[in-house]
């Protein structure tokens, strides 16, 4: 049986300025760490005829599939608000694979060596951050959140030097595409209308063919991308996910979560939560995520101005109107998401107060976000929370009253709550624990963790240790993972 690769590379056929043609740099001693069989199946790929060495060689880029055509993509981006020329500095797209259903996926190696866009970087990645991306992207997928996914991680047998010397690794990332707001920024900065048009038409053909014949394709694209981003951020807020580095180059046009660097899940509810060690001002804090999404979309809109209308003033007016509809759309969807988390059907004026009062209580009493919703679904996870608190009890009375409206009993609302409130998330201290073991060559905890995170909405036996927040009072910190 063959593997089933079915490459149909389109991005590599775009004009030269969009990319650099470059192969992954072979590595010394590739060794498979983890292979995602579930994702392989979804892609209609089958690696069971390959031995371990062949699989390792493949996912290290030492032996490329024949129809692949490797490129590093050019892009720019606002990093913490500052515009920079970037591009794939440590990744190559080996091609676009079509599943049997003709769904198209980018197959990208991350950590695959230097490219024209590496600047001062070494083009490589370390094992810890690549496994971290694997764990969290798969957890996000299982939580029902659009995301790039991880097909494999291999160790390279080479060292990468960061603050200390670390084991090198390559992650195979699978995405609907790697086209970012930053891709548009890169092309727009060149100020050649025909190049911008090529990108616009490419994106519409690939991701949003429904607007192919619309009167104003660029304004319609802005609207779709905005809607996708709002839905995505609402999903992040739902599970307490903090991306950590929402630069415009890390915002995908397809609406997937991309680039798992300093991301982490919030434990104690605090809207200002930031984990990233470099985010000193809290630009990418939990509660700022919608604000930043809007800011990034405004940068996207700026790129499209020349295509929206020949009359620049008219184009700016149209784009501004569109961007200004962000808040109303976001708030409406956020309220509905929170209603789902509380099992509320229909729309009542007072819902917003009920929701905000719960969040305020959670913030004041420093309770765990995930486990509070577990408590409301009658799953008791014995942490430090005091659910006998009088303020909470009186809030619950109001909640019970509201539950009676448009509801026919606990079965109906519990079903709704169970579909949106996870019983388990990748807790930060657990992520660190399994990464440390994996770094020491023990993959058992990693595999067990992945198995638990596979079914976040299902009751699972003996997982209390994965549900409890860390007992340590030390503030959790994440790093960019470069
Ligand atoms: P990120 O913070 O992962 O979004 O990356 C920002 C930019 O830095 C991108 O252009 C990356 O390709 C580049 N980059 C990150 N790490 C490295 C590295 N080790 N070598 C070369 N370029 C890198
Ligand atoms: Mg990035």
What does this structure look like?
The radius of gyration is 23 Å and the shape is globular. Strand 9 and strand 10 form a beta hairpin. The mean pLDDT is 97. The longest helix has 23 residues, at 217-239. It is of the alpha+beta class and 482 residues long. Strands 2, 6, 7, 8, 9 and 10 form a six-stranded antiparallel β-sheet that branches. Among the domains are: 11-181, no CATH class; 334-420, no CATH class. It has helices at residues 37-42, 52-60, 127-142, 181-189, 193-207, 217-239, 289-308, 312-324, 326-341, 351-364, 369-376, 390-403, 410-420, 428-439, 444-453, 464-467; strands spanning 19-21, 31-35, 71-73, 76-79, 82-85, 91-98, 104-110, 125-126, 149-161, 165-175, 241-242, 264-265. The chain contains 16 helices and twelve strands. The structure holds adenosine monophosphate (AMP) and magnesium ion. Residues 249-250, 259 line the site of magnesium ion.
């Amino acid at each position: 049986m063959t593997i089933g690769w079915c490459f149909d590379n389109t991005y590599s056929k775009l004009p030269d300025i969009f990319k650099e043609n470059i192969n992954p740099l072979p590595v010394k001693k590739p060794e498979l760490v983890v292979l995602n069989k579930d994702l392989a199946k979804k892609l209609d790929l089958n690696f069971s005829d390959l031995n371990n060495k062949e699989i390792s060689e493949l996912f290290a880029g030492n032996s490329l599939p024949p129809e692949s055509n490797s490129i590093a993509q050019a892009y720019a981006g606002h990093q913490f608000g500052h515009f920079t020329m970037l591009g794939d500095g440590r990744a190559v797209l080996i091609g676009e694979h079509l599943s049997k259903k003709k769904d198209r996926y980018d197959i990208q190696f991350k950590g695959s060596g230097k490219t024209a866009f590496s600047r001062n970087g070494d083009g490589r990645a370390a094992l810890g951050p690549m496994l971290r991306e694997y764990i969290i992207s798969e957890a996000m997928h299982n939580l029902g959140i659009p995301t790039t996914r991880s097909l494999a991680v291999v160790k390279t047998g080479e060292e990468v030097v960061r603050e200390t010397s670390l084991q090198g690794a390559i992650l195979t990332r699978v995405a609907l595409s790697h086209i970012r707001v930053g891709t548009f920024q890169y092309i727009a900065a060149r100020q050649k209308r025909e190049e911008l048009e090529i990108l616009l038409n490419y994106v519409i053909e690939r991701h949003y063919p429904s607007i192919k014949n619309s009167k104003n394709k660029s304004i319609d694209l802005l609207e779709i991308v905005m809607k996708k981003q709002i839905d995505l951020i609402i999903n992040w807020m739902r599970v307490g996910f903090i991306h950590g580095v929402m630069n415009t180059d890390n915002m995908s046009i397809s609406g997937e979560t991309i680039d798992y660097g300093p991301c982490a899940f919030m434990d104690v509810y605090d809207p200002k939560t930031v984990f990233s060690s470099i985010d000193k001002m809290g630009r990418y804090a939990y509660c700022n995520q919608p604000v930043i999404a809007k800011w990034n979309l405004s940068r996207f809109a700026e790129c499209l101005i020349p295509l929206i209308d020949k009359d620049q003033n008219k184009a700016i007016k149209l784009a501004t109107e569109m961007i200004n509809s962000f808040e109303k759309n976001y708030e409406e969807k956020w309220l509905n998401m929170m209603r789902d988390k509380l099992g509320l059907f229909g729309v009542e004026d007072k819902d917003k107060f009920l929701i905000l009062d719960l969040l305020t209580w959670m913030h004041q009493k420093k309770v765990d976000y995930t486990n509070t919703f577990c408590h409301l679904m009658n799953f008791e996870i014995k942490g430090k929370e005091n659910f006998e608190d009088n303020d909470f009890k009186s809030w619950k009375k109001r909640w019970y009253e509201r539950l009676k409206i448009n509801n026919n009993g606990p079965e109906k609302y519990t079903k709704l709550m169970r579909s949106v409130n996870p019983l388990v998330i990748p807790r930060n201290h657990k992520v660190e624990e399994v990464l440390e073991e994996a770094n020491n060559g023990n993959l058992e905890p990693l595999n067990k963790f992945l198995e638990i995170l596979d079914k976040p909405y299902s009751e699972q036996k003996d997982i209390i240790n994965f549900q409890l927040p860390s007992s340590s009072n030390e503030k959790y910190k994440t790093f960019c993972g470069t």
